[in-house]
Amino acid sequence: MEFSLVVALIAVASSCVFVHFLARGATKKRRSPAAKKLPPGSLGLPVIGQSLGLLRAMRSNSGERWVRRRIDRYGAVSKLSLFGKPTVLVAGAAANRFVFFSGALALQQPRSVQRILGDRSILDLVGADHRRVRGALSEFLRPEMLRMYVGKIDGEARRHVAGCWSGRAAVTVMPLMKRLTFDIIASLLFGLGPGAAARDALAGDFERVMGGMWAVPVDLPFTAFRRSLRAAARARRLLAGITRERKAALERGAATRSSDLIACLLSLTDDRGGAPLLSEEEIVDTAMVALVAGHDTSSILMTFMVRHLANDPDTLAAMVQEHEEIARSKRDGEALTWEDLTRMKLTWRVAQETLRIVPPIFGNFRRALEDIELDGYVIPKGWQVFWVASVTHMDAAIFHDPDKFLPSRFDSQSSSPATAKAAPPCSYVAFGGGPRICPGIEFARIETLVMMHHLVRKFRWKLCCKEDTFARDPMPTPLHGLPIEIEPRISP
């Protein structure tokens, strides 16, 4: 596998050999004797750099140790080469703050992601265009809008539990959670309810899209990337058709701004003459990003909550009690409401602690738009900047006993040592931070709380695999998708 990866990297990035050396040469030319120096470290071999070492570490769930060894050797700021590009690794809360708030850095996505999600996606826009598209997406994701959708999410969760969990002795958690989050997104974002043919078609294409999202971007027959590109093209055509249908429905009064994400985006206009705020291409690209982003984070979070609770009976018992109290206050079959979610405080603390220990995103890249300085070093224009969530999440100076699962550390009323000292800003970065902080935090919270409400009340479970491990490829995936044995729970 590693040999084929090397070949593919060389095939798609051979020109980066020249970029690699030009970056060194150009940097030397720009620097005067008084200029700041480059960070310590090595760019390694052309094109390959340290990419294989990082990928191996992530797949063996030792990525945190890999990063920590670099920090121990070179410090909090060091240079290396990842995926054919000169890169600077930055570490710590101050470095996170620099990455999240610097106007001289733009988000840097792998070429495979850019090709699949579109050129006008929010992930690649900068400046005014980014603020405009993000503002449009945030309009749909405002709490005032989302509180209207709690009942619909509850309905999807009930159907999912009844159809995929009830009456079974064993299930595999991760694929089920991925299907649940897809169904919720298809319903709320695109108006595709249960049984819709377009929903099933989009589900099949979406699985192929995700299969090549992080693949080496070699556009050749029989590659995962080619299959992903073709599936993405079909998904985009489907979403473009939904966009035109929703536009017509809005014009004749058959849909409203709150019908779904597409209707919301179509309804937004600028401040100058009421022209549409987003083009059709931007709406489709935004919908593609929302589909991908909303799918992985929530499904991974819920999967790893199930994984942890299987070995933590005390926390699980406390969660069951929290949800039974909510259930007793409602009539049989009555849907959950926004007010019910506000009472699920322990459950969300468990979710936050799960995200601290197993953040869905290992790290991310930015691109330097100009020469910038950090801690006395220069980061040349065009270089990547790489930050990693686990650096602060697992720092004992920030989080007491970081290897322990302690949801109480997120309880502001707790008197435990875990919360005796508040974590500094930009140290808990499960959702990123700054202007590009994940706009779907509240959406993920609703999905998670609703699903866990039904899961902990209806079932007991235990892990089927004694080896409780996971790998990153690049998202965290538990061994065999986390198979568990389940049995009905008799409510008190």
TrEMBL record:
InterPro entries for this protein: Cyt_P450 (IPR001128), Cyt_P450_CS (IPR017972), Cyt_P450_E_grp-I (IPR002401), Cyt_P450_sf (IPR036396)
GO function terms (MF aspect): heme binding; iron ion binding; monooxygenase activity; oxidoreductase activity, acting on paired donors, with incorporation or reduction of molecular oxygen
Pfam family, one: p450
CDD domains per record: CYP90-like
Residues annotated as binding heme: C438
Cofactor(s) required for function per UniProt: heme
Taxonomy, superkingdom: Eukaryota
GO biological process: sterol metabolic process
Protein keywords: Heme, Iron, Membrane, Metal-binding, Monooxygenase, Oxidoreductase, Transmembrane, Transmembrane helix
Family per record: Belongs to the cytochrome P450 family.
Protein name in the entry: Cytochrome P450
Organism: Oryza glaberrima
Gene it is expressed from: LOC127778700
